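During the first year of the project, the team set up a workflow for recording each protein of interest as an amino acid sequence followed immediately by a discrete structure-token representation. This format lets reviewers and collaborators read both layers of information side by side without switching files. As required by the reporting guidelines, we include two representative entries from the current panel. The first entry is reproduced here exactly as it appears in our internal archive.
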Amino acid sequence: MAEAHQAVAFQFTVTPDGIDLQLSREVLKHIYLSGVTSWKKRAIRFKNGVLTGVYPASPSSWLIVVIAIMSTMYARIDPSRGTTMIVMYKHRYINLSQCHPWLKHAILSGKKIYLESVRPLLDDEQYKQMETVANDFKKDPAPKFQKHLKLKSWWATNYVSDWWEEYIYLRGRDPIMVNSNFYTMDLLYVIPTHRQAARAGNVVHAMLQYRRKLERGELTPLRALGIVPMCSFQYERMFNTTRIPGIETDFVQHLKDRKHLVVYHRGRFFKVWLYYGGRHLWPSELELQFQRILDDKSEPQPGELKLPSLTAGNRVPWARARLKYFTEGINQASLEAIETAAFFLTLDDEAHGYDPENIRSLDLYAKSLLHGKCYDRWFDKSFTLIVYKNGKIGVNTEHSWADSPIIGHMWEYVLATDCFQLGYTAEGHCKGDINKSLATPTRLQWDIPKACQEIIESSYMIAKGIANDVDFHGCLFNEFGKGLIKKCRTSPDAFIQLALQLAHYRDKGEFCLTYESSMTRMFREGRTETVRSCTCESTAFVRAMEDESTTNEQRLALFKKAADKHQNMYRLAMTGAGIDRHLFCLYIVSKVMGIDSPFLKQVLSEPWRLSTSQTPQQQLNLIDIQKFPKYVGAGGGFGPVADDGYGVSYIIVGENLITFHISSKFSSPETDSFRFGQNIRQAMLDIRALFNLKEKM
């Protein structure tokens, strides 16, 4: 997803303190710090497990477990079967393994997979050169680097994730707006109320309910294949979290239960308390508070209107301005209110959403969620909730703390709770009594000098340039969906990925390195791995589709071969046998040790001109979309990854709809998001035609 942009753009600033012949002291320092962080997390989790119980049992149930095991021993029954299930259920964070199990043989298998992935992109001479460089790397210095990674895998919880967060996200000095943050849309067809304050009231209340369940450990862990619990670590920082800018690197500030949020409306900031008498505010009470803000006619203070653009521009100017102008007085107090809030809410003065009469309505909606006006979202917050004046909603999410399925899980709960549990009155207001004795929201006060206002304006202009360059197209593909693809006995993901390969070849006349994001949450603190979707098998299929001399039977055979290859690669990535995160960590070790590696430098600098990601739907199954077909989500997307490439997020919605969120840059003469969307649509239809000729659908 958006991490593909960071993966080829990050700048490494660590230098070695000295190199030992056996182990680098600087690398050992990094490994030690990773381990300390891991053990701190384990201590916190152990405490939380004792206090709140572990899914699905409480601490008292362990007495039953002990008795059961003792009974099996007395009865001479093998207790391993029961013990296996107990270990699986023991803790929501304990999964298949702490880190990738293939680390021992990773260099040999990784080299083979990498060379396979670049073979369709290189001519014979280029491939031979790459093969030589890869073989040289395998001999030396790869074993030195691997030795350090093995040590880290023994000591740290996950040998990848902490470095991934630090070097891919937090050390990036470019703007995070568009380049890193991503967005999630509302229900596609339904707006449950057109009253802005009421929609905000229900949605915020539903988020508070979700946060309470999260803090109490009441959310059932998701399971891979319905069996293996997936790691829930990323959920911990969903609320009460802010990315804090620094000169060399940012850091993620996560706090315990926060009792307020900050609202932005027409250039003013308001602090709203979320509790009254020890309980959450009811939706009707929140509606009242938000309506008070909407009715407030006061003007922004000097410098206040575009203040959030500091979070949209380059990180270093923001970090310096924060140190100079926001560390004392009312500026410090107001900034602290924002950074310690549960989350950030924008009551937007625009109207957006899907309009079937306007082919570009999704495009404008997506761009608004992705970057807005460049000064009306706080891009550093874990997420910004946006509520438009027509009642439509969406979320802009900061990427360092989690990946899209995490925010998607919360979003599904919120939409279902909003529409099917809380509901609205006939007039569109939140249900419940109105407590008019609530204290009114508090305006945050600022004293922003001219010099700081100039920095704000500079950040705004940089962000505005980035936003104006985003060429976005939302494509609703409803000719067929998952239902028909399954009849073809093909993985829906493989079907779509091959369609993307065909569409890209038709669009540009060439193949490119393709990034598909796969989750690795079957491992503790796992995040993502890369599936390299452009393969020898997929390129053979695409060429056959464009070769008029090839029969449809031959094309179909090549399609099935390419689809099988893709499924196997996705399976490898998901189970820890991908190569890109391992290569990334080897590169980190090489830079810390001060050893130059032409192979790793080449691998980490290759542009992903087609970056793709599937956004999961129905993680919770709270809405029966067969019964309520209009209550489907529109999914979400991210900004363009390469200057001359495409970013594509796709969402398989039910049985008969697939949505594509396509981004590129206007400044590139090689790309056009609308054109690429049309190519995707035609590619999907052309592949379906192969099966129509083979069997009746």
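The second entry, processed by the same pipeline in the following quarter, appears below.
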Amino acid sequence: MKEPPLITANTVLSILAVDYPVEKVACYVSDDGAAMLTFEALSETSEFARRWVPFCKKFSIEPRAPEWYFAQKVDYLKDKVHPEFVRERRAMKREYEEFKIRINALVSMAQKVPEEGWTMQDGTPWPGNNIFFLYFCLAQVFLGHNGVRDVEGNELPRLVYVSREKRPGFDHHKKAGAMNALMRVSAIISNAPYLLNVDCDHYINNSKALREAMCFMMDPISGKKICYVQFPQRFDGIDRNDRYSNRNVVFFDINMKGLDGIQGPIYVGTGCVFRRQALYGYDAPVNKKPPGKTCNCWPKWCCLCCGSRKKNKKVKSTDKKKKMKNREASKQIHALENIEEGIEGIDNDRSLLMPQVKFEKKFGQSPVFIASTLLEEGGVPKGATTASLLKEAIHVISCGYEDKTEWGKEVGWIYGSVTEDILTGFKMQCHGWRSVYCIPKRPAFKGSAPINLSDRLHQVLRWALGSVEIFFSRYCPIWYGYGGGLKWLERFSYINSVVYPWTSIPLIAYCTLPAFCLLTGSSLSPRQGFPLENGTFDISCQVQSPANPNFLHDVQISNYASIIFMALFISIAATGVLEMQWGRVAIDDWWRNEQFWVIGGASSHLFALFQGLLKVLAGVNTNFTVTSKGGDDGEFSELYLFKWTSLLIPPLTLLILNIIGVMVGISDAINNGYEEWGPLFGKLFFALWVIVHLYPFLKGLMGKQDRLPTIIVVWSILLASIFSLLWVRVNPFVSKGGIVLEVCGLDCD
């Protein structure tokens, strides 16, 4: 958790107030920073929750994150009939403002560390004061035990703070490692059969969203095969025009809907309800085959003998299978009892020792956790005390617990990429599970998104880098997971999700070609040539040699190729229109997505490709830092905040090249007369097409005050000039021998 404490508090409050039975809800907060600030903020949050939760449930408040509820510019009296609502709302708003003041005081206090170190509420020293290790193990239950109830005397959901141990020399696997630690702690303390994953910068916007997810999970026909229910991501605080396509509606409202008709959507990292058994690496349950057809078209006596034998064989085989299943079930139950008892006295029984060894190799050396994995419907051992469970919870979040286990390989969130969400969903669907895409009328979850240009490009860079890492890993969907339960069309979608950064290379070539053709006077389309005197062929020569009077003028691209090009263009446009109609996506949202695809492809995807190659081939980790350069105040002020980053250089270079190319092309056409305007129109169209796609990028550079750092202009003009001069110097459109000059034989005197 790296978000400000107030944002995290709103996320926690929205989960605690969800419309679901409180005894079945537990909120686990992962603090990878082991900060005293987060611990104290959660303590304050638990106190405020005792008043906020009953207020939300009494008046059906939506959303149930107080910061966003009180910030709504709507008529909050609409559909409210309770006479006490106005008075209690004013009191609750005043209490929330006091709560914010206390959180802000904690933030200012945390900036100055006391000389003697931090002290916890019970007077004991904060474990993080020890400088000999990075972070420590800590699990603390704030709500849901010892009779802690709300102000109306009702039970509250459980709230647990978790800080896993982190030491130098250990790979902690960032978010994936934190999620695996939370999964083990939750299995020991509550062991619910379903998990909700929400990032700290998101909150529950629809309190009934969990019930909708459970309708899929608990479906009696197909629910057992569902590994997760994914909700679309929706965001607050985005400008009206969505300049940098933060809403990503084409992906969430078209692509994900389409995948829902195959084997389900991919996991996007947040707003997802999981089945715990699927995360443990188990295969999906196999559907029972329908009973075989009976022979009713022939007389009974013709099938009597054979039929009786087949029936006897089937009865015997089914009896054997039942006996084997009962024997295996008894072994598992006996092994489970031995696990809970500490596995004592079974060293001489190899049949009982082997299952336990396999469990430890897969899940780690925690008897309590291993026992919880065998309980498909969840639940904790009877008679277990909170203190004993917390002690075991601290054991499973130690930094060396995952050593020599299958965590991150076959169990839990998968390691090996910064986009662990794609890998995790891919692994589960390779085991035969399917997922479901749930789009309620009221958005289930909302969050914040980076709305300025530099932060948005770095977000896209991170996603693209994760795809490149998966492409070079053993889990690449091109060659991994065959023979499992992954459908072919679903595999194609995963392949598309890991190969798209490679499209940056042809994209940059296409964006550069119109500018170079305008600067050099070359043609965009391939031309046909005729033999020269020396037997060679000139396929793109723009100058007619006087030594070859029979050399005909250049011939444009053939009609056949033109028809193919137009057919492809029209089919792509028609497909886009049909997708927009089907997904109910507005044309301006689709156009914003197209624009940012070009911007991101020319910058973030290209950098991710180079960074991934350096990491895989040379073992070099390259980090692109962002330095703030200034910003404005007011609504959407972050939209105009400019931050220098090297990701801005490639698209700006393309923009300058095409602008200069348009100016040079028009100038040449004016100077050379009417004949040059015909071939020029095609070049101008494609160059302007590139400029129009990069227009949001240009607006992001200019900002609200029309300021542009000098370093960007210098580097971009320098690179554009160098590439232009090199192209002119090594011009492939001019024959190697040059123009042949001969004396005309006329006496000019």
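For the second entry, the following points were noted during internal review. Residues 1-117+125-132+152-158 form one domain. The first strand starts at residue 26 and ends at 30. Both points are flagged for discussion at the upcoming steering committee meeting.
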